[in-house]
Specification:
Structural class: mainly alpha
Oligomer: single chain
Mean pLDDT: 88
Strand content: under 5%
Largest sheet: none
Helix content: 40-55%
Distance between the termini: 41 Å
Number of helices: 3
Low-confidence stretches: none
Length: 76
């Protein structure tokens, strides 16, 4: 926990007449009870779902080589 945040929490606890522990526990309860927006990762896959994976048979050195090639085929 950052020092500044801890100092603010201690001050808030003191001003509200509660222990630091009680303040942190209440904050955790509120955060855990809150509705969190779901995060969906957009589908960035290429090709059609039924197509064969052109990289499935590649070894790791072959995959790495393909990853680090520029679009024109030269090394990056």
């Amino acid at each position: 926990m950052r020092d500044v945040l801890l100092m603010q929490a201690k001050r808030a606890a003191r001003e509200n007449g509660v222990t630091l522990r009680a303040l942190i526990e209440e904050g955790l309860r509120r955060m855990l009870a809150a509705e969190w927006p779901s995060h969906e990762v957009p589908d960035r896959s290429a090709g059609d779902p039924g197509d064969d994976d052109p990289l499935a048979e590649c070894s790791w050195p072959e995959l790495r080589s393909r990853i680090y090639l520029d679009r024109d085929g030269s090394r990056a």
